[in-house]
């Protein structure tokens, strides 16, 4: 099973986060706005550190358990 999350990057785009989490653009930006998913901007480009995305997913799994 291939992951939509690239392994060679240290930061991912919002569409890549959307694909990895199977969420809408609105929901991803909502997670960013509420500080649940850390991100940064370079110019007009929003990026999410890959480690932050993995941490977010691990936290969600822990909360669900």
TrEMBL record:
<feature type="domain" description="Helix-turn-helix">
    <location>
        <begin position="13"/>
        <end position="60"/>
    </location>
</feature>
<dbReference type="InterPro" id="IPR041657">
    <property type="entry name" value="HTH_17"/>
</dbReference>
<dbReference type="Pfam" id="PF12728">
    <property type="entry name" value="HTH_17"/>
</dbReference>
<dbReference type="InterPro" id="IPR010093">
    <property type="entry name" value="SinI_DNA-bd"/>
</dbReference>
<protein>
    <recommendedName>
        <fullName>Helix-turn-helix domain-containing protein</fullName>
    </recommendedName>
</protein>
<dbReference type="GO" id="GO:0003677">
    <property type="term" value="F:DNA binding"/>
</dbReference>
């Amino acid at each position: 099973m291939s992951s939509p999350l690239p392994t060679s990057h240290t930061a991912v785009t919002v569409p890549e986060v959307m694909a990895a989490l199977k969420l809408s653009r609105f929901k991803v930006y909502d997670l960013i706005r509420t500080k649940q998913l850390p991100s940064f901007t370079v110019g007009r480009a929003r990026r999410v550190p890959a480690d932050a995305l993995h941490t977010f997913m691990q936290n969600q799994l822990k909360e669900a358990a």
